[in-house]
Amino acid sequence: MKPTRILIFAKAPVPGRVKTRLIPALGAEGAAWLAALMLDHALEQARAAGIGPVELCMSPEPGGADWLSFILPPDIATSAQGEGDLGERMARAAQRRIDGGEMVLLMGTDCPGLDAERLRKAAACLQSHDAVMYPAEDGGYPLLGLRQFHSGLFADMPWSTDAVAHLTLERMASLGWRVWVGESLRDIDEPGDLAYLPKWLDQTAVIGPF
Q: How many helices (H) and strands (E) does the chain have?
């Protein structure tokens, strides 16, 4: 049985550079504070899932000044996302780990509903499928799991549109892959999404430093 690695993609929670679509509602400091909370949550859930190694794919690269105030748990591996669009960055990380003999769960930090239980479910289904996905209600996906790599899943994708999940599933179908699809989850990207924050996260964000 191949080991499974969770790859979490995140930007440094720097005001004005992260969660910019939430700035009209929260301000730059508030949006960055919420981004940091959601990154903490993603790391906590990935570790709690107990699936395998957890790796934070960072932008900018690890050790840079933007990350100095963010303390990572000691068991988190780190890597640089590198250059290119989201597809190029995810493709590099996925191929590196799959070529090394692992399966991967690729996830971001924008979906509080992607908890340890759902991560365990995705990892279990990946044992008998070529790929797994939790789609997002906005048409993207908070999580994509892969047993094998194919560059076509990431190339020429209209990222940040409502076509991403549908096109990805179409491409996997054309490859003849067996795919498990979980329930749709909500990303927190726009001011209207803030109404769907979990109560604990909503309360923490409200009393943040802004």
A: 5, 7
Domain boundaries, the chain: 4-192
- CATH number for domain 4-192, candidates 3.10.50.40, 3.90.550.10, 3.40.50.2300, 3.30.450.20: 3.90.550.10
Beta bridge partners of 29: none
Q: Which pLDDT tens digit goes with each residue over 34-76?
A: 999 999 999 999 999 999 999 999 999 999 999 998 999 999 9
146/125 Cα distance (integer angstroms): 11
User: What are the residues whose beta carbons fall under 8 Å from the beta carbon of 195, sequence distance 6 or more?
Assistant: none
* pTM of the shown model: 0.94
Residue 203 host element (H or E): helix 199-206
What is the Cβ-side half-sphere exposure of residue 41, based on CA atoms within 13 angstroms? 21
User: Please, what is the end-to-end C-alpha distance for the chain in angstroms?
Assistant: 48
Structure tokens at 56: 């934070």
For residue 65, give the DSSP letter: G
Q: Cα 133 from chain centroid?
A: 12
